[in-house]
Structures are given as C-alpha cells and as structure tokens.
Amino acid sequence: MFTFVPPILMKREQRVGEGEREEAKREREERGEQEKRGREEKKRRREKRREEKREEKREKRREEKRTEREEREEKRLEDEDREKIVESEEETISKI
C-alpha cells in the first residue's frame, strides 16, 4: 500500500538527507586528511630514521679511519724507535 506523504515532509526529509550526505562527505574528507597526515608523518619518521642510520654509519667509518690512522702512526713510531736502537747498537759495536 502506498502512504501519502505531504510535500512539506518530503522536502524536510530530503533536506535531512542532504544534511546527512554533507556530514558524511565532511567526515570522509576529514578522515582522508587524517590518513594523509598520518602517511606523511610516517614517511617523515622513516626518512629521519634513515638519515640517523646514515649518520651512524658515517660516524662509525670516521672512527675506523681514525683508529687505522692512529695504528699506522704508532707502528711508524715503533719502527723508527727500533731503527734508532739498531743504529745506536751498530755504532756502539763499531766503536768497540
């Protein structure tokens, strides 16, 4: 059976429906913006972490190079000392 609905009620129902649609649309847009901000924040955090890791690797490599340089310098000094000792012993032996 068909029920008669006065036109004034239909319009109000349509207006309510439009309002609900607009509200739903706003909610979707807000949710979309929140998701977009979330993705961007996640991307920033990921990039920041990558940069931190790169910096850690650079610092580690610098430390390794510094250590290698110090070891080479120490070895060179030891070799020079050893040469001096050998030369002084040779001079002492030659004097005798």
From TrEMBL:
Biased composition (Basic and acidic residues): 10-41, 49-96
Superkingdom field: Eukaryota
Region of interest: Disordered: 1-96
Name the record gives this protein: Uncharacterized protein
Species of origin: Hirundo rustica rustica
